[in-house]
Design a protein that fits this description.
By secondary structure, the chain is of the alpha/beta class. Helices cover about 35% and strands about 15% of the residues.
Length: about 400
Amino acid sequence: MAKRLTALLLAVLLMTGCADLELVPQRPPVPVPSAPPAKERSLSVYDPDGVITEVLAIYAKEQTVTVTAAKNVETAQLAVFDKEPEFGKVWDLAQRPGLVGLLAAQSPCAGFELGTSSYGYVADTALLKALLGDAGSPEKMRALTAGDWQNLLTALSGWIKEPENKSVYLARTNYSLPDTKEGPAQNLSAVFSAEESTRFSGPLFAPVIGTCFKNEEGFVNAADRSALRGSVNSLYTLLSQEAESFAEDGLEAFARGETVFCRTSLQKAQAVCGSDKNLTVLPLKFTFDYTDIHGGLSLKELLEQPVSVSGGWLAIPLNAPQPFEADAFLLWAFASKEGQRLPKSDGPAAEGMPNLALAVDRHKMEKLAELGRAQQDWTRDGRRQYTEKSLAILQEKGE
């Protein structure tokens, strides 16, 4: 009887789907600890000119890092310097632990250079062709004399205000501007814009100093710099020409197609405009002549090539909080495909045109910039005052 009851009970269990029941005591389940929340990462960067803004945005998104702008070098984990930083203020990257130390090509290594760029009048080649046809080719634009350049600016300024089939005389030939604003020219509102940080200083002064000095040492050691008066006077002419038709929004106005020329570096223009525009860079159109040359570069060197400027230096401040976050960015920047978008040299350095603006210390350069920002008088008296005040600043000795 007992055997039959046991068999019957097993049959019922099979019919109810419990045939896989284990006939062993069950232990209470052991709770699996949940993973701790990911620690939030942050990177503070001092980059006043926005040199690596685009790359930082990609890094923040890809690596889930909060990137903030530091107010100064002292509070930053990573900093962009306009020239090679001094040891004592930054880490020797060759001494950083891990792979960052291996990235440094030499020891000591104060930072990684972001390449050099050409500074001058940046223009959209499609826009130049739409306005001037074959006469708008970069080669022909670079070869324009001071007189041709003034003819072009006068014609463009008038045409932007009132589009019509206007004639312009360039290189002994008459060319016609289009009847209407259309295509790449449809948004034009001014001839010029300029990168704000260098509008009145920085690389703008490199050719000015170059008329009398071939290098920074020559300028710094000169007992008398009064021979620069003629080239400073030419700088006034360049600024007054820009002021006649100028848009205040700088690179952004140029990127929107609102200006023909933007005085900036090719690197920065490419970063703001992206791949939408095929950009070219033209030399700064100074009105130098042989009377301005006093032992410096030749007229050909000064007038037929852009200025070479440093793209900056990437470094880790010596007292940076949590410098390993800066290490992580540097590794990503040099190892990832997206990181390769860091500014690099956009071509060979302009032969014979070093960055002579480095000869002028920051204090004097700011005084020159302030003088330019305050300049509103483009008359003969304004010319004399600007020239004499600028020359007085350049004549100052010491730091």
